[in-house]
Amino acid sequence: MSYKTDYNRVAGLGRAGEGVHHFWVQRVTSIALVPLTILFLIPFGRALGGGYEALVATYSSFGNALTAALFLGVAAWHFAIGMQVVIEDYFQGGTRLVLLVLNKLVSFALGAAGVFAIATILFSA
Amino acid sequence: MGRQERGTNMADVNRGDRPLSPHLQVYRLPLVAKISIMTRITGVALGAPALLIVWWFVAGAYSPEYFAVADGLLSSLLGKIVLIAGLWALWFHFANGIRHFFFDVGRGFELPTVAMTNWLVIGASVVLTVLTLLLV
């Protein structure tokens, strides 16, 4: 028989201080991605297949570079927490832990690579 | 607290008339559930075109020669098939994501509305894919 209070028995268990944070971020990034998807797709689709000149012509424009960088950065964040839910649903134990770490590393590395590549194209043009 | 009435107690031995949850191996999922699963599948699958597009940008930052390789591959027949499939997956995920904004605030759960928005999501994913291909 423990003499702890009810509160003390449960403090720190369950939501682990995170609560609905991921749920909320998933929705905030979704809202941001609605306009960003459209603003990214049109210039990207037009530049695709046009060679190096088309790439530089498109992404030496500050607006195109900014929306593309925002799109890839926010999409990487959205992908990271979305994949986390998927991994948590289908994997247990050590496999889950390894996949969760890999997921964060790969997602954010991809996002950062995209943003830095676009910045490099913008600044070297 | 007094003894609960028969049938309201979870530990009651009479299980015969209690409702069962859907048996997943024989339960035919409604279309809204299949679309929900497709939203998850398209979300995961979109990682592949995202990887290709980031590679395309990184190649562009690296050198014009390396970019020619990436740009050539992405605009080849195989590249186009992958990117157009990715484009449809993106618009499907996008369209059902917008429907889920309504679900999140408790709207659109009436069965006739769900039946209508099911086809709205499927239709929008196709229309937006064709529209994007026409615009670029």
From TrEMBL, chain A:
GO terms for biological process: tricarboxylic acid cycle. It is a multi-pass membrane protein. This is Succinate dehydrogenase hydrophobic membrane anchor subunit. GO terms for cellular component: membrane. GO terms for molecular function: heme binding; metal ion binding. Pathway: Carbohydrate metabolism; tricarboxylic acid cycle. It comes from the Bacteria. Membrane-anchoring subunit of succinate dehydrogenase (SDH). The keyword Iron applies.
